[in-house]
Each structure stands twice: as structure tokens, then as C-alpha cells.
Amino acid sequence: MVEEKMGWKTKWTIEKFKDPDGKIESALHAGIPMEKVIEDNSDAHFGHEIIDGNVALNEGLQLCMTLITGAGGTAYSQANTYVGVGESATGEGPTDTGLLGSTKTYKACEAGYPTRVGQVITWRGIFGSADANIAWNEYTVVNAATDAGTNLNRKTSSKGTKASGETWTLDVAITLS
Predict the structure, then answer these.
(1) Residue 24, phi then psi, degrees to nearest 5
(2) Would you say residue 1 has pLDDT above 80?
(3) Is residue 113 part of a domain?
(4) What three-state secondary structure class fits 67?
């Protein structure tokens, strides 16, 4: 008997920089590759966090099926997608419909994202000095500027509290196999 399975593997990457003058945020928005930004600002780079896994949300999976069948819906494209962070530490579940915290921030998907290489799709959000200065405990990809859109996934993992004068980035890479 042949068994059919679809794999979904998610890797969240957070890069943290001291950035009181906003030059790192500007370099990232200008499309300077992350590796170069880290190399050129090694004294300001103070954190590299990896989070594996997530829960694909029912609402996001249902939208993916709608998009595959051409029945409409809003795609998770650069024009529509936001990367969100919040402060709730409540564990994720498939029936979640977004971030659960009372304080949350959504950043538009960075220009040039999402990228697709083979079966890997990556979204990037850049959170500058005034953005998401909260405890980073929960994460999502959503096709609108708020949870009113359709959230693709959600993950909870405490990764510290972002402060003013810092730029943090959040990359979300999903591999389908």
C-alpha cells in the first residue's frame, strides 16, 4: 500500500540589532542582503534566534485550498502579506484565527518577499525602532494588516523583549514536501 503525505516544515528566524540611528533598518529596506548587514554591523548584531515548527491554522489551510482551485481568495503575496508578532504566550492551536495577545504589531512583507526557491517560501518583516517594542512571544503570517485577514500559521516561543533603538527582523520559511 502506498501512503501519501504532505510535509510542512516551518523555520522562523529573528535577527536582532542595536540601531539607535535607524541605519540598519534603512539598509535592510534598501535590499542589502542580511549576511552583509550582519557583517558590516557585527558590533550592533546581538541576537540570532531560530524557532522550528508552528501550527498551520485551519483558516489558512482552507484558503490555500481555495487558492489552489482558483475559487478566489487573497493570496499571501508581497502586496497582501504581513508578518505579525504579539505578546501572548498562550500555546498555538489549529482553530486560532490570529495572534491572541492584546498588544501585537504587523509589518508589511518586505519588498522582494515572499521568495520561492524550489519548495521553500520565505516572508520577511522588518521591525524598526518604534515597532513591536513588546515581549516577542507569538508569530504569524497573515494576508491583511490585522487579524481580520486569514492567518496562515501561528507559533509561540518567547524570544525576548524588543526595545526602542533596536531593529529586529522576522523571516518565516515554510518548506512543502
Answers:
(1) -70, -45
(2) no
(3) yes
(4) helix
Q: Which three cell numbers stand for residue 128?
A: 524598526
What is the residue-wise DSSP string for 121-168? EEEEEEE-TTS--SB--EEEEESSSSTTS-EEEEEE----B--TTEEE
Whether pTM > 0.90 for this model: the answer is yes
| Structural domain of 158 | 9-176
User: Considering the domain boundaries, does residue 144 fall inside one?
Assistant: yes
Peptide bond into 33 cis (omega under 30): no
* Whole-number Å distance between alpha carbons of 130 and 138: 18
Per-residue model confidence as pLDDT tens digits over 78-110:
999 999 999 999 999 999 999 999 999 999 999
Indicate the number of domains in the chain: 1
Residue 4: what pLDDT? 86
| Interatomic CA distance for residues 138 and 26, integer angstroms | 25
The Cα 11–Cα 86 span in angstroms is 18
Task: Return d(Cα 132, Cα 168) in angstroms, integer.
Answer: 9
Identity at 90, one-letter amino acid code: T
How far is C-alpha 43 from the chain's CA centre?
A: 25
Is residue 2 a part of any domain in this protein?
no
